[in-house]
Design goal:
The complex is a heterodimer. By secondary structure, chain A is an alpha/beta fold. Chain A contains 12 helices and 14 strands. Chain A has 2 domains: 183 residues, 3-Layer(aba) Sandwich (Rossmann fold); 127 residues, Rossmann fold (3-Layer(aba) Sandwich), CATH 3.40.50.920. A 7-stranded mixed sheet of chain A has the order 3-2-4-5-7-6-12, sandwiched between helices. Chain A has a 5-stranded mixed sheet with strand order 9-11-10-13-14, sandwiched between helices. In chain A, helix 2 links the parallel strand 2 and strand 3. By secondary structure, chain B is of the alpha/beta class. In chain B, strands 1-7-8-4-3-2 form a 6-stranded parallel sheet, with helices on both faces. Classes of the chains: A alpha/beta, B alpha/beta. At the A-B interface, helix 3, helix 4 and helix 5 of A face helix 5 and helix 6 of B.
Chain lengths: 326, 363
C-alpha cells in the first residue's frame, strides 16, 4: 500500500494497465518526455518506450478520430487532452463516430478508448483552463462519462475505463489532483463503471456531488451532523450511464436531495438527476430537490471564479433550506 | 535570398479522353484481362448507381450519392489495394467498396435505412461509409498507426472529396501521417463540386495535391477519368507506403456528372453545357474505345456485360426488398458490448413502445 495523490493514482493505473495489456497506448500532447502538463504520464515513456507513449502534434481535432482508427484495429488508446477547454473538438468524433461505430456496423467494428482530461475550476488558471463540460460528454450516446473524486476511485475507475470495450470519457478534477494522499493498493482491481458510491450513510438528506465538489459535500455533511442532521453523501462518479437505483434508494430513505456541481445549471447533470427523482422518486420526497451549481455564464477569470463555483456556505444553505421542509 | 523550399506537382495520364494512349502503358496494364476487369467493375458500378437513383425516385431507397462519371477513381483505387489493406471511404466510393467485396445488397440495405448494411460479409476491417465530410481522415491515420506499430505491411487508404480538403481535421490527419511516416494514402476524388461550391471557391491553391507538400509527403495529380492512371499512381503510392516510405496524397481530377445526391438539383447552380462537355471525358467510354481498338472488347461482350450487370443488380434489389426489418431492440443492443444496467429500463420501454405501436396498428 502506498499513500498517493489523485494524479499519482492516475499514473499508477496507467502504468498497471500498460503492463498488463500490450495494446494499451498513451497518446496526446507532451505525454512523453514531459510526462504530461500535470505529470499524469510521468515515467511512462521511460518504462514503456515511444511506441506505447506517443507524443502527438498539437491536433485536438485529430485525437479521438485517431483513437477510433486505433481502437478499430485492436489497440486500446488512452488519449490525454491537456485541459477541459481544449476538449471540445473531441465532441465531433465522439458523437459522429466513437459512440456509434459499434452500433452502426452492428458489432463488426468497435473502438475501445479512454479520453481523459483534467477539468474544473478553483486553481486560478488562465481562461479556458477551468471548465466543467461533463454534461456535453454525458449527452453522447454510446460513450461513458466517468469522474473520480479520490485517489482510490481514480485508480479503480481508470482501470475499469481502460478495460472497458467501449469509449469512456474520464474527467479528472484537477483542483484535487494533489489535495490529499490516500492509501491505494496497486492490485489491479477495477471498480464498477455504472455504480454510484455512497461515501457516507445518512437518514435525513441525500447530498449528491462528484469530482472536486465531493470534499465540499463531505465537509457539509460534517457541519450538518453538528446540527443533528444526518446527511448521506453520494459520489455519482459514473455520470453516464447514471446509476438511478442507488440514487432512488437513498432518496427513498432520506426524502430530501441536494445536488452540487461546478457546471452551469441549465440542462446540466443536476437537471437530469432531479428529473429522475421527479419521475421515479416523487412520492418519497419531503422537500423540493435543490441544486447548488455555477451560473449560466462563461467561466469567469480567477478574480471572480470563487464566487462562480459552489462552496461550503452555499451547500449548507441549500441543505438547511431542504431540511426546513418537515 | 536563399530558396529554402520548392515543389512541383505532376499530372499523370495514360489514356486520353478519345481512348488513345498519352504515354506507354505501365507493365501491369499490358495484361488485357486486368483492363477488362477494371472495365467490368466500372460498368457494374454505373449499373448499381443508375438503379439506386431509380429506387430512390420510386420511394424504395433513401437518399443516395451517385458516383456517375467518377467510377475510375473508386475502381482504380480499389484495384491498387491488396485485400489486407483497409479502405476508409466517404459516401461516394461504392465502386471501391464493390470491388473489395461489399455486396450490392449490402449497399442497398444501408442506403435503404438499415445499419445491417454496414455489417458486411466482405472486407471485415474496412470502415463503413463516412458521411460527415472528412471526419474519417483521422480514422485512417489511426488505422495506419496500428499497422506501423505492429510492423504489418498494410496500408490505410482514405477516400474523400475536394470539399473535404478544406477541413481542419483532414489536415491534422495528413500532418500526423507526414510526421509519423504512416502507411496512409489519401485519394482525393476531385469531382469539381462540393454540392454547389465549385473547386475554385474551395481553395486558392493551384492543385489539391500540393496540400501534401506542407505535410512532408508527395502529392500527385492524376487524370481521374483514366482508370489506368488511377490504378498505376495510387498503386505506386500504396506500395511506397507499404515499404515504409510514408504517406501520400493522390488527387484524381474528375467530374461529378450527377447531382450531389438524390436530394440535390445541380441545375440550380451549374450549366447543362458544362455537364455535357464533361460527358465527353467520362471514364467508361474511353476505356471501351481503347479495349475495342486493342481487340479486347466488342459489341457482343458489351451486351453480355450489360445483361450480367442488370441481373446482378436486379437479384440484389430483390434480396434487399425481401429482407425483413431488424428487431427494434437492435438499436440498443449494439451500442455497448454489454448493455449497461442503467440502460435496461430504456430497453424495456422500447419493447413496450413496439408493442404499443403494434396494438395501435391493429385497431
Amino acid at each position: 500500500m502506498t499513500a498517493m495523490t489523485l494524479v499519482e493514482a492516475v499514473r499508477t493505473a496507467l502504468a498497471r494497465a500498460m503492463a498488463e495489456d500490450p495494446t494499451v497506448l498513451v497518446l496526446g500532447e507532451d505525454v512523453g518526455k514531459d510526462g504530461g502538463v500535470f505529470r499524469a504520464t510521468e515515467g511512462l515513456l521511460e518504462r514503456f518506450g515511444p511506441e506505447r507513449v506517443l507524443d502527438t502534434p498539437l491536433s485536438e481535432a485529430l485525437f479521438v478520430g485517431l483513437a477510433v482508427g486505433l481502437g478499430a484495429q485492436g489497440f486500446k488508446p488512452v488519449v490525454e487532452f491537456q485541459f477541459d477547454g481544449f476538449s471540445y473538438p473531441a465532441i465531433d468524433q465522439l458523437v459522429n463516430h466513437a459512440g456509434r461505430l459499434r452500433a452502426r456496423t452492428r458489432g463488426r467494428l468497435s473502438c475501445p478508448m479512454v479520453v481523459r482530461f483534467p477539468y474544473g475550476g478553483g486553481v486560478r488558471a488562465p481562461e479556458h483552463h477551468s471548465e466543467s463540460p461533463e454534461a456535453f460528454f454525458a449527452h453522447i450516446p454510446g460513450v461513458r462519462t466517468v469522474i473520480p473524486s479520490s485517489p482510490a476511485r481514480a485508480y479503480g475507475l481508470l482501470l475499469a475505463a481502460i478495460r472497458d470495450p467501449d469509449p469512456v470519457v474520464f474527467l479528472e478534477p484537477k483542483r484535487i489532483y494533489r489535495a490529499v494522499r490516500e492509501e491505494v493498493v496497486d492490485d489491479g482491481r477495477a471498480l464498477p463503471l455504472d455504480r454510484c458510491f455512497v461515501l457516507r450513510e445518512g437518514r435525513d438528506l441525500t447530498l449528491v456531488a462528484w469530482g472536486a465538489m465531493i470534499p465540499v459535500a463531505l465537509q457539509a455533511s460534517a457541519e450538518l451532523a453538528k446540527e443533528g442532521v444526518s446527511v448521506e453523501v453520494i459520489d455519482i462518479a459514473t455520470l453516464k450511464p447514471l446509476d438511478c437505483a442507488t440514487l432512488l434508494d437513498s432518496v427513498a430513505k432520506t426524502g430530501r436531495c441536494v445536488i452540487v456541481h461546478e457546471a452551469p445549471p441549465s440542462f446540466g447533470p443536476g437537471a437530469e438527476i432531479a428529473a429522475v427523482l421527479a419521475s421515479e422518486g416523487l412520492f418519497s420526497l419531503l422537500a423540493p430537490v435543490l441544486r447548488v451549481t455555477a451560473f449560466d455564464v462563461p467561466t469567469p477569470l480567477p478574480r471572480l471564479e470563487e464566487l462562480f463555483l459552489p462552496a461550503l456556505a452555499d451547500v449548507l444553505e441549500a441543505c438547511r433550506r431542504a431540511m426546513a421542509h418537515r | 535570398m536563399v530558396e529554402v523550399a520548392s515543389f512541383r506537382i505532376e499530372r499523370i495520364q495514360y489514356l486520353r479522353a478519345d481512348g488513345t494512349l498519352a504515354a506507354p502503358l505501365p507493365p501491369w496494364a499490358e495484361d488485357g484481362e486486368e483492363l477488362v476487369r477494371l472495365y467490368r467493375a466500372m460498368v457494374l458500378t454505373r449499373a448499381y448507381d443508375t438503379k439506386a437513383v431509380n429506387l430512390q425516385r420510386t420511394g424504395r431507397l433513401g437518399t443516395v450519392a451517385s458516383s456517375l462519371g467518377q467510377e475510375a477513381v473508386a475502381v482504380g483505387t480499389a484495384a491498387a489495394m491488396r485485400p489486407q489493406d483497409v479502405l476508409l471511404p466517404s459516401f461516394r466510393e461504392q465502386g471501391a467498396m464493390l470491388y473489395r467485396g461489399v455486396r450490392i445488397e449490402e449497399l442497398l440495405t444501408f442506403w435503404g435505412g438499415d445499419e445491417r448494411g454496414s455489417n458486411w460479409s466482405g472486407p471485415r476491417e474496412d470502415f463503413p461509409v463516412c458521411i460527415p465530410v472528412g471526419t474519417h481522415a483521422p480514422h485512417a491515420a489511426g488505422v495506419a498507426t496500428a499497422f506501423k506499430l505492429r510492423r504489418e505491411p498494410r496500408v490505410a487508404v482514405c477516400m474523400l472529396g475536394d470539399g473535404a480538403t478544406s477541413k481542419g481535421d483532414v489536415y491534422e490527419a495528413w500532418n500526423l501521417a507526414g510526421v509519423w511516416r504512416l502507411p496512409m494514402v489519401t485519394v482525393v476524388n476531385n469531382n469539381q463540386w462540393a454540392i454547389s461550391v465549385p473547386r475554385s471557391a474551395q481553395t486558392a491553391a493551384a492543385t489539391l495535391a500540393q496540400k501534401a507538400i506542407a505535410c512532408g509527403m508527395p502529392g500527385v495529380q492524376v487524370d481521374g477519368n483514366d482508370v489506368i492512371a488511377v490504378r498505376e499512381v495510387v498503386g505506386r503510392m500504396i506500395e511506397r507506403a507499404r515499404a515504409g516510405e510514408g504517406p501520400a496524397i493522390v488527387e484524381a481530377v474528375t467530374y461529378r456528372l450527377s447531382d450531389h445526391t438524390t436530394a440535390d438539383d445541380a441545375r440550380r447552380y451549374r450549366d447543362d453545357a458544362e455537364v455535357s462537355a464533361h460527358w465527353k471525358e467520362e471514364p467508361i467510354a474511353r476505356l471501351r474505345t481503347f479495349l475495342t481498338a486493342r481487340g479486347l472488347w466488342d459489341k457482343d461482350k458489351e451486351e453480355q456485360l450489360l445483361a450480367w450487370c442488370a441481373r446482378e443488380v436486379e437479384s440484389a434489389v430483390e434480396a434487399y426488398l425481401a429482407r425483413a426489418p431488424a428487431p427494434a431492440t437492435d438499436m440498443i443492443d449494439y451500442v455497448f458490448a454489454e448493455l449497461p444496467a442503467p440502460m435496461r429500463a430504456q430497453r424495456a420501454e422500447l419493447v413496450r413502445r413496439v408493442a404499443r405501436r403494434a396494438e395501435g396498428a391493429e385497431r
